[in-house]
Amino acid sequence: MAKEKKKQETKTSHVDGAMPEQAAQGVFRLKNQYISDLSFECPQSPSFLGEYKNNINLDVGVQTNRIGGENSSDYEISLVIRGRNETDDKKVVYLLEMKFSGLFTLENIPDNDRDMLLGIDAPALLYPYARQIFMSTITASGFQPPLLEPINFGALYMQALQNKQQEAAAAQTSAS
């Protein structure tokens, strides 16, 4: 029985419970998530607290910031979400801007995989929480929350990659 207990201690004594043969595998881990910034404005209140349409224009962006310098394995990924609800005659019912961030650790990940994890998987992990806070803020402000659809961060990542390639090609052409 003493031998079994010692084996269990040996198995769990490695960082994150990884066995030595697994130590070289890549690590992608969400360490923390938090609201970096939150702003709500209702410039026409209280006139819109009764009748209005949920006619929200939503803009979502992803920001990546390496924390701790070149050799660090920590990254802050931020979803920047802006919602603007307007009437048909362009009067603003409310504005909501939020920056929801997560601190991620990536170790032993090749560069191509790292970029995709930070541009697709990290925002996809954060979005459900950010969406809930976004809609809860609208509800707590006296409005009906809009239905925010899921976002395909893979498609957004590929579109951004294509835009960078087109810009690089255009810059090369104009330099020639």
What does the average pLDDT come to?
83
Q: Helices and strands: which structural class?
A: alpha+beta
Summarize the helix and strand pattern as letters: HEEEEHH
The percentage of residues in β strands lies in: 25-35%
- CATH top level of the domain at 25-146 is Alpha Beta
Task: Give unreliable regions as ranges.
Answer: 1-23
- What is the percent of helical residues? 25-40%
The Rg value, from CA coordinates, equals 22 Å
CATH names the topology of the domain at 25-146 as Bacterial Protein-export protein SecB
CATH superfamily of the domain at 25-146: SecB-like
| Span between termini | 76 Å
Key structural traits:
single chain, 176 residues, alpha+beta, Bacterial Protein-export protein SecB, four-stranded antiparallel beta sheet, 4 strands, 32% strand
Descriptive report:
It is a single chain. This protein has 176 residues and is an alpha+beta fold. It has a domain at 25-146: Roll (Bacterial Protein-export protein SecB), CATH 3.10.420. Helix content is 36%, strand content 32%. It has three helices and four strands, in the order αββββαα. The chain has helices at residues 2-12, 111-140, 153-175, and strands at 27-41, 56-67, 74-86, 92-107. It has a four-stranded antiparallel beta sheet with strand order 1-4-3-2. α2 crosses α3 (153-175). 16% of the residues are buried. Mean pLDDT is 83; it is low at 1-23.
